Amino acid sequence: MFGRTTDKSDDTNEKSYPVTKSDAEWREQLSPEEYQVLRKSGTERAFTGEYTDTETTGIYNCRACGIELFRSTGKFHSHCGWPSFYEPSEGDNVELITDRSMGMKRIEVRCANCGSHLGHVFEGEGYDTPTDQRYCINSVSITLQPTS
Questions:
Q1: How high is the pLDDT of residue 99?
Q2: Of the residues 62, 65, 111, 136, which is catalytic?
Q3: Rounded distance, CA 61 to CA 41, Å?
Q4: CA–CA separation, 97 vs 8, rounded Å?
Q5: Are 138 and 48 in contact (CB under 8 A)?
Q6: Which residues contact 104 (CB under 8 A, 6 or more apart)?
Q7: What's the CA gap between 83 and 47, in Å, rounded?
Q8: Alpha-carbon distance 85 to 89, whole Å?
Q9: I want to staple 123 with a disulfide (CB 3.0 to 4.6 A). Which of 31, 38, 65, 133 is the partner?
């Protein structure tokens, strides 16, 4: 998998990221929904996000800090209700965190620049992609910068 991997049980929420803001600053910058997903690891409802079915050519950036995360060339239709990518555009721009909460093992995807929650990555689901991975990303966590 692309990205830096850590275990959430070792994560004290005190990790330092290149972009660091106080809780009040994040609340001021982000809408309530964006704050809930990006800063509190929430999830938007399936099939409600603006990028779920988007086919626009471009770059997907972190909504909180603006760093590039994914490209439209790595996006595919998984029909899961959230935008899906088979790889990040820059592996070092995402952080993968093993999450063993809720009695299961999942891999959380965060922005490596600001620590914002983006979604989860799954593998081995049988999608016909080069990596057999599905980065299941909340639309509210990203912004699309069209390139054409």
A1: 84
A2: 136
A3: 17
A4: 6
A5: no
A6: none
A7: 9
A8: 10
A9: 133
| Contact (Cβ atoms closer than 8 angstroms) between residue 146 and residue 58 | yes
CA-based nearest residue to 109, from 126, 92, 121: 121
Token code pair at residue 13 = 């929420």
Nearest to 42 by CA among 108, 97, 95, 87: 108
Q: What is the pLDDT of residues 69-107, one digit of tens each?
A: 999 999 999 999 999 999 999 879 999 999 887 788 899
Read off the pLDDT of residues 109-144 as tens digits, 9 standing for 90 and up: 999 999 999 999 999 999 999 999 999 999 999 999
Of 51, 126, 133, 122, give the one whose Cα is nearest residue 86: 133
pLDDT given at position 84: 97
Active site residue 111: no
Instruction: Name the 3-class secondary structure at 141.
Output: helix
pTM: 0.88
- Which one, of 90, 78, 66, 91, lies nearest residue 137 by Cα? 78
On whether the CB atoms of residues 117 and 41 are closer than 8 A, the answer is: yes
Our measurement of the distance from residue 114's CA atom to the centroid of its chain's CA atoms, rounded to an integer in Å, reads 12
Mean pLDDT of 3-19: 61
Across residues 44-64, what is the average pLDDT?
96
Phi and psi angles of residue 120, each rounded to the nearest 5 degrees, phi first: -140, 160
